[in-house]
Specification:
Number of helices: 3
Strand content: 15-25%
Largest sheet: 5 strands, mixed
Structural class: alpha/beta
Number of strands: 5
Order of helices and strands: EEEHEHEH
Radius of gyration: 14 Å
Shape: globular
Helix content: 25-40%
């Protein structure tokens, strides 16, 4: 997905968002890809779990019914969930904050697969 990455105070890009051609948006979708149970290494450039989610992102981007919906993806620091560390859930929260900074207080749908689904459930209490 081409567009802008947003960095947190620690310098990590938690959100990948295409350049919005419109604002205000009616809503947003945050896509959360899968990963591994345990791994402290960063995802590689060719990240298969991330690539698996691209057809969903593309379908939403191209569907005229969602023309006023921002579609963004989370960028994890590490490939794994890593037990209590739950890194992907923390990144999902940062991505939601960054998404709010761009789009304002719009409804957000969390769409996750595998570990991304776990991150979505761990973030679902976010207002």
């Amino acid at each position: 997905m081409s567009g802008h990455g947003f960095s947190s105070a620690r310098g990590h890009r938690a959100l990948e968002l295409p350049q919005p051609s419109f604002l205000p948006a009616a809503g947003a979708v945050l896509v959360l890809h899968g990963g591994r149970a345990d791994s402290l290494v960063p995802p590689p450039l060719l990240n298969l779990p991330g690539l698996r989610m691209r057809p969903f992102v593309r379908a939403l981007d191209q569907d005229p019914l969602f023309a006023d919906v921002l579609v963004a993806s989370a960028c994890y620091r590490m490939r794994g969930w890593n037990g209590q560390r739950a890194g992907p859930a923390q990144v999902a929260r940062q991505a939601l904050e960054q998404l709010r900074a761009v789009a304002g207080p719009v409804p957000v749908v969390l769409a996750g697969h595998s570990m991304g689904h776990r991150a979505a459930l761990g973030t679902a209490d976010d207002p």
